[in-house]
Amino acid sequence: MSKSEVELLQGTLDVLILKTLSLGPRHGAALVRWLEQVTQGQLVVEEGSLYPALHRMQEKGWVSSHWGHSETNRRSRFYSLTEEGQRQLIEQMDAWVRTVRMVTRVFSAHDAKPPPR
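RE: above sequence
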């Protein structure tokens, strides 16, 4: 893995997809392109990860899909966030905020000695 690539923790891709779809319906290639742009190329999502995640989220009722035409007039499946997906996004974003705060506390700690017994 190159320095510019980021390893995702398990489950992270789902919340990133949900966040992207919260901004409006997108087909797979547009979803990947948006994530790549927002992360300034640091996150590249492969089709082998994207479509299984979208199908899993569709089975859970978090996203729905419909056929349409892309900006290049190709027939594409567009994915949209459902109400359940919106609830899931909020829940997962809250969990991430808590996780980031916890990790930040650990990274900011200066005293590595265990407390006295």
